[in-house]
Amino acid sequence: MLRIKDLSLAFPEQGKVFNNISFNVRKNTITLLSGNSGVGKSSLLMCIARVIPNIIEGEIKGEIIYKNANIADKGIDSISGSIGYMFQDPDSQLCSFTVEDEIAFGLENLNIDPNQMDDIIDRALDLTGIRHLRMRNLNQLSGGEKQKVALSSILALDPEFIIMDEPTANLDPKSTREIVDLIRKLRDEMGKTILIVEHKVKEIMDIVDDVIEIYEDGALNIEKDEFFKSYLVKSKLPVKSKKSLEENPVIKVENLSFSYDKDREILKDINFSLYEGEMVAIIGPNGAGKSTLTKLLIGLMEPCKGRILIKNKDISEMSPKDIGKSLGLIFQNPEHQFIKMTVEKEMALGLELGGASQEEVSNKVDYYLNLFNLSSQKNMNPFALSQGQKRRLSTASMMINGQPILILDEPTYGQDRENLQELLNLLYDINNRGVSILMITHDMDLVENSCDRYIYLEGGQVKHCGIVDDNFKDNLEREIMAYEGE
Amino acid sequence: MKGNKDFIDNMNPFFKIIMLTIITIIGSTDFLPFVSGTLIISGLVIAHLFSSLSYKEVLYSVRAFIIMSVGFMNIILLTRLLSNQDLELLRILGLGFRIILISIYSTIFVKTTDPTEFVMALIKYFKVPAKFGYSFLTAYRFLPTFKDEMEIIKHAHQVRGIEESRNPLIQVWNSKRYIIPMLATAVRKGIRISVAMETRAFGKYETRTYYRSLSLNKQEAIGSLLYLLYIAAIITVFSINGLTNFTLIYG
Fold first, then answer.
1. How far apart are CA A253 and CA B132, in angstroms?
2. In contact, A33 and A48? CB cutoff 8 Å
3. Taking the domains of chain A in order of start, what are their residue ranges?
4. Are B160 and A324 within 8 A, CB to CB?
5. What tens-digit pLDDT sequence spans chain A (486 residues)?
């Protein structure tokens, strides 16, 4: 179906990305594209979809043979509609306001008769099981639902070949399972061919037919069972020994409720504590109210009812600066907190504003640069760092003043397994020095390996909380099923 | 009147664009407050009767403009009073009313018009290229996201110890700190959305079909024409009585 022959890519500024990549994708299969972080997997997908060089500038050499024709020198319009392209951020791939408009968009572009569109839209929505959402506004949908809309809008065009770049990256476990089932259905029931990059290997290993590993100077078709076995070992997250420390609460959330308008309560009567020295996770499906709770915990919004105490002080009486002195906040997107133009200045900022002496600033910055493995990047612009480096810098610059509490919003966002392993080791180190850590996440592996306790949020309420032990996943699943049964 | 409550909401944006353009021209050219004042009241009544909006909703949405124009009027009056100049109350009232007039009609337009149909109307009736139309649509879709992002960035900076000045001018000057992260996100989002659009064949052909049908309905045309005649009648009557700055020349 697709043959890549001696493909090389270079970007005007960064230079060479990969060289001499050759592999085949068989018809009606699911092929996993693997490779180390930064090797150019997403760029390769963009070359095939003709996004590079049509939308993003890049120099391509070699051949991309799709259905017996070389498309390497053709424009994006030569394959649009025939090759579908789905990526990880559900919001950035939707361009209209309602579900049906979104599905109709591609059909309109292909000059399909409007009288036929209703049937095609229904069929595409049926394939992903979201026909009931047809009239809904896109802004009201959860991440998983948006991803299904994006897939429906591609399926409406009936492409034979679909490229997927981490389609489940921002999804909770349930939505991930649903998307993986859909991918299987695309191959088995609709005869589609799929080329996918996905870090949640455990979740998709059962449906993959072939694995291609790409390197800087080539690609290999590798035996899949062997690959999965070694990948699972290699990607195992470091484990922290569990503690039970329910003595001194550093964060106390009492009877917290929040709503944006009278009709819809986002959070209802939330109660929990984070104790000194603990690592705790707030988990729950997309749309459970985690983001709203995070905004309240960091003082960005005020609750309608209840209060949040940080070391016995009501957060509503604290200025953002005071909150910053008590808490280190690691935002979902590290770029949001970058202010200075070099890594070194970025790290020094908190200390300088806190009135530290020049010598103290210099010593501490050197220590943290070293601790967070950023010494060789100290003169770089924070925006030019890799995803893993950005996350490390945001963590380091938020912790440099020695705050006793750290809140991380979706620490796995934009991180591959390697980066996550590095980050976790750092967090364990910080935690061992007495820092209490609260993370908001939907990565169950992360919770299982790193946290002492979990708080499960669903429908804006704490549905369950408990300690993270060997039976954590089973217990949680039982609780969720009991809740859904009710 | 109950059955007509969505008449303006369902109206083809073409008529609403024409109406808003005419109101804007009147608001920009007539310096006296009589026509503007009458059209403000008529607009509120018409919106209340023929759209899903209530008086309260419209007035609440333009509260900033009302406060601004009342503020302007008072400052100018006070300055003129202190400097012993002619008060020119009518002209000053006219200035305030013009701001309120345009803001009220714009609000009714924005709140009753589906952005997708607005873009379709621009492409279909005003021959705006589809590329520009859809660029506007996607930018409009991301406005709330950018607003949220700006708030998060501001908060992230404040938490790190950067204090926001109380002086609005310094606030504007300092906002440059937020521009780089905002631009980084906007550029990335812009690239992704154009990838999503072009891989779904946007721009592949010179023509495209439209799922939603947008037609010029007779009832809507008559409704719009009646309101235009009403506006013309008001201007004529007020002009004859010297209550506008338009001059009517008789034979």
1. 48
2. no
3. 2-234, 249-485
4. yes
5. 899 999 999 998 778 889 999 999 999 999 999 987 778 888 999 999 999 998 889 999 999 999 889 999 888 888 888 899 998 887 888 888 899 999 999 999 999 999 999 999 999 999 888 999 999 988 878 777 888 899 999 999 999 999 999 888 877 888 888 889 999 999 999 999 999 999 888 899 999 999 999 988 899 999 999 999 988 888 888 888 877 777 789 999 999 999 887 777 889 999 999 999 999 999 988 778 888 888 898 888 889 999 999 988 999 898 888 888 888 888 888 888 888 889 999 999 888 887 888 999 999 999 989 888 888 888 988 888 877 788 889 888 888 888 899 999 888 777 777 778 888 888 898 899 889 999 998 888 889 999 999 999 988 899 888 888 878 877 777 766 655 544
With beta carbons less than 8 A apart as the criterion, state whether A374 and A324 touch: no
User: The complex's ipTM?
Assistant: 0.81
- The residue type of B117 is E
Nearest-neighbour CA in chain B from A95: distance (Å):
5
Residue of chain B with shortest Cα separation from A399: B160
Q: Which CATH superfamily is domain A2-234 in?
A: P-loop containing nucleotide triphosphate hydrolases (3.40.50.300)
Chain A residues with CB inside 8 Å of B195's CB? 46, 49, 51, 55, 85, 87, 93
Beta carbons of B36 and B94 less than 8 angstroms apart: yes
Measure A334 CA to nearest chain B CA, in Å.
10
3-state secondary structure of A328: strand
CATH 3.40.50.300 fits A249-485, yes or no: yes
Distance, in angstroms, between B236 CA and closest chain A CA? 42
Region of A242 on the Ramachandran plot (φ > 0 left; ψ -120 to 50 alpha; else beta):
beta
Q: Using CA coordinates, name the residue in chain B closest to A355.
A: B161
